[in-house]
Amino acid sequence: MRVVAYIGLGANLGEGRRNLLRAWRRLGAVPGITARRLSRLWRSEPVGGVSEQWFTNAVGELDTELAAEELLALLLRIETELGRDRQHQGFDRPIDLDLLLYGDQVINLPHLVVPHPEMRRRRFVLEPLRELAPTLVPPGARQNIATMAASLAAVEGQRLIPEDWDE
User: Do you find a cis peptide bond into 115, omega within 30 degrees of 0?
Assistant: First the structure.
C-alpha cells in the first residue's frame, strides 16, 4: 500500500540549504519512496532562547511503500549519516528530519507520534506545508493547513523569511 507522507526538514548548523537538499535526495533514492515535491526554503528565527542560529526549513511530500516506523528509522539514519548526534548536540543541528503526516493515520507510539505533536504550533512547518497541501485537513484537526498557518501567523511573533532554492 502506498501512502503520501510529509516530512519536515530543518538545519541550523553548517550549510543548511545543502544539508536539506542532501537529505531530500537520499530519501528519493530509497526503493519504495518517491520524493514528489519539496517546498521552497524558509529561514526561521529561533524561538525560546535556546539557540542564536537561524534555521533553514522546508517540507517535502513523499509517496512511500514503507511503514511509518520504517520511514522514521530511515529518517534517523539519514540524520546520523549527515552528522546529527542526538546524544550530544543539544538544540543546534546540521539536519533534522521529522515525520509530520503519514497518510490519514494517527499513530501514538512511545517513539513515534503522527500527526507530529508540535506541527500545529510551528510556523516554520505550517508555512512550507501550506505550499504543498493548503486544503489538507490533518487527522484529528478541524481546520485545513492554510487556515492553521494563517491563524498562527496572526498571533506568533517569529520572523520567517521565504527563500528560493537557487539563491
Answer: yes
